[in-house]
Amino acid sequence: MPETCRIIALGGLGEVGKNMTVYECRGRLLVVDTGLAFPRDEHLGVDLLLPDFGYLTERREAVRAIVLTHGHEDHVGALPYVLRELGPVPVYGTRLTIGLVKSKLDEHGLLRTAELEEVDPERSPVDLDPFRIELVRVAHSIPDAVALVIETPAGRIVHTGDYKFDHTPVDGIKTDVGRLAEIGSLGVDLLLGDSTNAERPGVTQSERVVGEAFRQIVPQRRGRVLVSSFASNVHRMQQAIDVAVLCGRKVCVVGRSMRKNINIARTLGYASAPDDTLIKPAELDDYRPEEVLILCTGSQGEPLSALTRIAYGDHPAVSVERGDTVIISAKPIPGNELRVHDAINGLARLGAEVLHEENALVHVSGHGMAEELRTMLSLLRPRAVMPVHGEFRMLAAHAQLAREAGVPADAIVLAENGSVVEVGPGAPPRIVDHVEAGITFVDGLGVGDVEDVALRDRRRLSEDGILIIVATLAGSNGRPTAEPEVISRGFGESAGPLLEEARDEAGRILRELLDGDVSEIKLLQEHLHDGVGQLIYDRTGRRPMILPVVIEI
């Protein structure tokens, strides 16, 4: 009987972010990437969104290894939480990826027990029976990104990770077209390909285009120049540093994650800066505005990031004024647009000139567009295709490109998170099952303890406020010691006749129940909740959260 391999995406399908894919053969599991996503406005109070990795925790003994394609948060950010659940599973990645992961695990207190294995793509493959994995270099918006060639008993699978075909990369390391073509000649049974830019026609511009824009912009400016980008975009930061050195400006790195990543990249040789170029935030006031370039986090409008605090005049070390220039060198992740626009408005209000991708060529994508996806398809000539990494419309666009490249329609599988895709020799991939693959919320120090009901309550609080009803009963006879008190927060009718009426209604309900010998506190609270809630709805059409508190003294 021919062997089969099951592929389960626990994240990254129908969404941008939290990429995580499981390969299952002969009862052993291989995990590719452990990414996270950032919360949207509806995720009130939530800090991070992780994949639901319950499927792995139930099979922790079978997990062979975790392989990381590159160091972006949407591919490695959930690793500490996964390892906390699974224990010390071997983690494989390239030099910079492992360097970034070490720092992350150290923050979580997991570094001493972690099994981190650095892999040189020129010296792979790695044998992880029953899997054999080769790492192939690809160009992306972070150094040391790779695609994976996974040899399984059911055939050869290529998992591209994030890539583009940059012919003039900053570090000179291009996507290894020659090796990809060789793999295509050997035969590829299934391609799992990045779909992020599948809808966009043409070719993604080279990263060097942004460096050229910096060289045009920075020398002409007479005030401070701030450059905001993703903290992991080492090439972008390097190009900004190079231009600063060219113009005789000092460079100040602001934002914890960016400082950390710059230090790691310099230590490992992926970034360079003269020691006398870098200054600390406390030294900024020692230099004239035209002598300084500031690298900072906050390109996504994150509430506590450096750029957002600067935009609202709340940063302890950095301020902007008329004559300064702010370059936002990133594209807003879907869902972050409003926060980014708010930051831009705040900076403009302070008098700064703000340059972003809509009015200047200060950002290019790290993902290949449609023509590059066609190139990947023609190099690998896969027998079957499973689009991954993107919202469903992006997956569908990638599927269309595969059909145009000659892949039969029945050999293209459009899956969702949790779909179990089975592949085997001579048979097209097909969805055979479905596993639980939801979202795990990180809320402060809690992981997975925020349920949908909690988010619903938070939405209600944000929309209609809260009414707290405090009733006090005497422990001796169970009678009220005073009229109930009604406290209002975030509710429009914070004072006046309605609260008086709610207080009277609460007193009436309490007396009726006690007269009828109903003294169980839970029942009293339930009736107070329903009665006062109905009154408020009848009068205002709103449903604030009603919180009855019955105290016996």
Topology:
Elements: E1 5-11, E2 20-25, E3 28-32, E4 48-51, H1 54-57, E5 63-67, H2 73-76, H3 79-86, E6 90-93, H4 95-107, E7 115-118, E8 126-128, E9 131-137, E10 146-152, E11 155-159, H5 177-186, E12 190-194, H6 208-217, E13 225-228, H7 234-247, E14 250-254, H8 256-268, E15 278-279, E16 292-296, H9 306-311, E17 325-328, H10 337-349, E18 353-355, H11 370-380, E19 385-388, H12 392-404, E20 419-424, E21 427-434, E22 439-443, E23 446-447, H13 452-464, E24 466-473, E25 485-489, H14 497-515, H15 521-540, E26 545-552
Parallel strand pairs: 3-5, 5-6, 6-7, 11-12, 12-19, 13-16, 13-17, 14-15, 14-16, 17-18, 24-26
Antiparallel strand pairs: 1-2, 1-20, 2-3, 4-22, 8-9, 9-10, 10-11, 20-21, 22-23, 24-25
Helix pairs in contact: 4-8, 5-11, 6-7, 14-15
Task: Specify the CATH class of the largest domain.
Answer: Alpha Beta
Looking at CATH, which topology of the largest domain would you report? Metallo-beta-lactamase, Chain A
Fourth-level CATH superfamily of the largest domain: Ribonuclease Z/Hydroxyacylglutathione hydrolase-like
Q: How would the global form be characterised?
A: globular
How many discrete structural domains?
3
Task: Specify the CATH architecture of the largest domain.
Answer: 4-Layer Sandwich
Strand content: 15-25%
Strand order of the largest sheet: 7-6-5-3-2-1-20-21
* Ends distance: 74 Å
